[in-house]
Amino acid sequence: MKKKLLRYLLILNFIFTLSIGLMSNKIAPIKHTMTATKYYAGDGCGMTMACGEKINKRRVETFKDKFVALSPDMYNNHGYNFHDTIYVESNNKLIKGRWIVKDKTSSRHKKHIDFLMTKNNSKSFGNGTVKIYIIGKYKDDKNKKKRK
Asked: Given 3.90.1150.10, 2.40.40.10, 2.40.100.10, 3.30.70.2740, which CATH number is that of 32-137?
C-alpha cells in the first residue's frame, strides 16, 4: 500500500512539475558572440547616429548614454532593431551591462559590435569578443498614435 501511494505521489509530482514547465513562457535568450571594438563620437563618424539622433559627448563621457552600433547582419538576420536594449557579457567591466542599439557599422563587418565612447573613457577598453542578447525590444507606440 505504501509503495502504491509513493508511486502515485511521484507520478503526481512529475505531472505537476511538467505542467509548470510547459506553462511558463520563459525562453532563454539567444546569445550572439560578437567581435567588439570602439568608435569615437565625432571622430570621422560625424555627430549623428544611424537612428537619426545626435551624439551628446558629455553624456557619452559619463556613461549616461551607453550606445552601440551593430553590423547590418544583426539587423537583417537576427532581429535586432534601433533602440533595442541589449545586455553585453564581458570580462571587461567597462562594457559589461546594458546598452542601447543606436547605430550601424559598415556593411563589410559581420557579427560586429562597436561601443560609442570618448577618447578619455576608452583607455581601458581592449578589442575582443563579447556575447550579447536582447533584453528589451523597442516599442514605438507613442509615435504610432501621433501619426494616425
From this structure: 2.40.40.10
> Which pairs from 104-107 meet CB under 8 Å and 24+ separation?
104/50, 104/69, 104/70, 104/71, 104/72, 104/75, 105/69, 105/70, 105/71, 105/72, 106/71, 107/71, 107/72
In 10 A of CB 110, how many CB atoms?
13
Instruction: Write out pLDDT tens, residues 20-71.
Output: 554 445 577 899 999 999 988 765 666 888 888 888 888 988 889 999 999 9
Q: What is the DSSP letter of 121?
A: G
Which pTM was predicted? 0.73
Instruction: Pick the closest to residue 47 from 37, 62, 58 (CA basis).
Output: 58
Positive or negative torsion for Cα 65, 71, 77, 78: negative
